[in-house]
């Protein structure tokens, strides 16, 4: 038995796309003879996979790095490795300002994690910094990376649910966003590579697969496929039909003007494809959307929502908005509120705009004061809370399929689970407070639930 190279403790921050990168890095490390430990105090090496989408996320990444750096002083850890989006954006700053960090791994270098953990230093003594060439701080970009079905991956989500990254990068010019700057140009995974991974995850017991990317609706554009996502979903529905375990194939991150009739018909045609559409719209005012370089307007979006609801009966709709974008007037915000009232989304996220030094919007005039941004964010969320409460109440009395996930995070007296209309981590859930005679809830079981009550976002149900 090959001797272990040591124990690695991992912290994964940010979105599910970053989580998949962490799972790949852990898989690669295991394959190279390292042990992954959940106990940071017992780790020889600590890795933080960072997020740097917006300022609050950057702050969380910096705080986490400093927290783990403390462990290097007090605990067993010898090395601290920083990976992820913050490395791509601030590689030079981290090297200059965080001497606690021993190695950096960019988003295209994740299969190099072993070398970083094993001692390939990127950090040099402080007095050398001034004389080092610039490209030491900003090395030439490495080849765009995207894992495939043969890449080792240590899954961290429950056995019954898994993310599949079907694409990486983005070619859209949204002026508030810096993601294309560090995740690079859009690139799809090979069609059969995704299908092979889906098959394997099914055999490993996954009931649910969640397809992710910066924009999944562009899938296949670079492979010469027309309506590539619809074609991929058709293939994955066939994989699920053949699978003992696979039941739900869910897609996230649709770009509005890429939602085609073919895509909607495909989702409607296959019971294995969740009746679920996640489509960040970002705003509803034509002038704000124009400044965001996203185009369209509230009326166009309402027609699109109508078409989605007509094509996929009972579809669950999720979206997200940015409030306080430079130039957003009170009238623009009122227009957004009226749109949200008319649209009646099931799930909605709202972000307050923040200047990022390299996003295009940083140069726009009409900056909205932080206090006003926060007020608008709260107003829009409370409007959605009322809508969500009404929509949840309308589900009382219905009986549906539920994926039981375990004891509730809130109280360990109750079990909890999710419906087809509830994505992991971001939507509401079902709290199970009663079980029919002869039934025993189990983690990962698919069962039937009768909805008996509703809260603002969550439902209460009885397993039947
Ligand atoms: S679609 Fe726009 S917001 Fe989304 S990752 Fe691409 S540039 Fe950013």
CATH C-level class of the largest domain: Alpha Beta
- Biggest pleated sheet: 5 strands, parallel
Number of strands: 18
Query: Under CATH, the topology of the largest domain is which?
Result: pyruvate-formate lyase- activating enzyme
Query: What is the helical fraction, as a range of percent?
Result: 25-40%
Number of alpha- plus pi-helical segments: 13
Small-molecule binders here are: iron/sulfur cluster
* Portion in strands: 15-25%
Would you tell me the structural class of the helices and strands?
Answer: alpha/beta
What number is the mean pLDDT? Answer: 94
End-to-end separation: 48 Å
Rounded to an integer in angstroms, the radius of gyration calculated over CA atoms is 23 Å
Shape from CA axes? Answer: globular
Question: Unreliable segments (pLDDT under 50, ≥5 consecutive)?
Answer: 123-127
Strand order across the biggest sheet?
Answer: 2-1-3-4-5
The structural domain count equals 3
Q: What would CATH call the homologous superfamily of the largest domain?
A: tm_1862 like domain
What is the CATH-assigned architecture of the largest domain? Answer: Alpha-Beta Horseshoe
Write the layout of secondary structure elements.
Blueprint: E1 7-12, H1 16-31, E2 35-37, E3 45-50, H2 55-74, E4 79-84, H3 85-97, E5 103-105, H4 113-118, H5 134-137, E6 161-165, E7 167-168, H6 179-183, E8 187-188, H7 191-203, E9 208-212, H8 228-242, E10 248-251, H9 261-269, E11 276-278, H10 286-291, H11 298-311, E12 316-323, H12 330-343, E13 347-352, H13 370-393, E14 399-407, E15 415-418, E16 430-435, E17 446-454, E18 459-463
Parallel strand pairs: 1-2, 1-3, 3-4, 4-5, 6-9, 9-10, 11-12, 12-13, 16-18
Antiparallel strand pairs: 7-8, 14-15, 14-17, 15-16, 17-18
Helix pairs in contact: 7-8, 8-9, 11-12, 12-13
